[in-house]
User: What shape does this take?
Amino acid sequence: MDIKILGTGCQKCSALANLVNEVVKEMNVQAEVEKVEDIPQIVKYGVMTTPGLVVNGKVKLTGRLPSRDELKKIISEEQ
Assistant: This one.
């Protein structure tokens, strides 16, 4: 599984990165988690408000932090 956190390093972006890493470990999912901070790359995904979450090439979330349960659901749908 390929997971990208899109954001320029703001507090919410860092919180999302931490949450994703915790949930991936908790669910025992094999995933490569990458933080994308380059604005032109973020815009290529069509994300205009950060943080953004991309799972397996699909934008799943923009502009807010998900709850732990919502994030688990997003990840399990992509397994």
